[in-house]
Prior knowledge:
The chain is an alpha+beta fold. The chain folds into two domains: 3-77, Gcn5-related N-acetyltransferase (GNAT) (Aminopeptidase, 3-Layer(aba) Sandwich), CATH 3.40.630.30; 91-173, Nucleoside Triphosphate Pyrophosphohydrolase (Alpha-Beta Complex). Helices cover 19% and strands 38% of the residues. The chain has three helices and twelve strands. A hairpin with an 8-residue loop joins β11 and β12. The longest helix has 14 residues, at 22-35.
Amino acid sequence: xxxxxxxYDGVTVDIDTLPSSxxxxxxxxxxxxxxxxxxKLLWIKIPIENADFIPVLTNLxxxxxxxxxxxxxxxxxLSQESIIPLAETHAVGVGPIVCNGDQLLVVKDRIANxxxxxxxxxNTNETIKDALKREVFEETGVxxxxxxxxxxxxxxxxQFGEPNLYLVCTAKATTKKS
Length: 178
């Protein structure tokens, strides 16, 4: 397995060099751990198709750090002084204030009774501007251009019990509903 050194005195296993079996993984990880003198953390991302590697790693004191729909990131402290950075701790959403004269663009709320700003979660690797455009178009068929962030809301107990940050932005409609 090949590793990539990061700027925080840690190393990450190159996902493209993972072995093909759990037994091989265990042998290579043990060799890696024994070879590090001054590194603080060892990171390894396991694709879902290699989920059988997870018990091998947890038996070697790796901890879960964060996951996505197709992978799990695990980390192992290589020294007692190591500090593991926090994983994502908030869901972040975005919604715009879009005015046309004295009209405000809103959508009917599917859960609560009433109306709300169009909007939703910002996807991984998506900018605020792109998420705003995507969410408004998905919910209304209107194309918008981001103008600015107007306010930030912080709400506890989101969909999965995590806190949410919600960015209220201003935007300008560039089309009407298609």
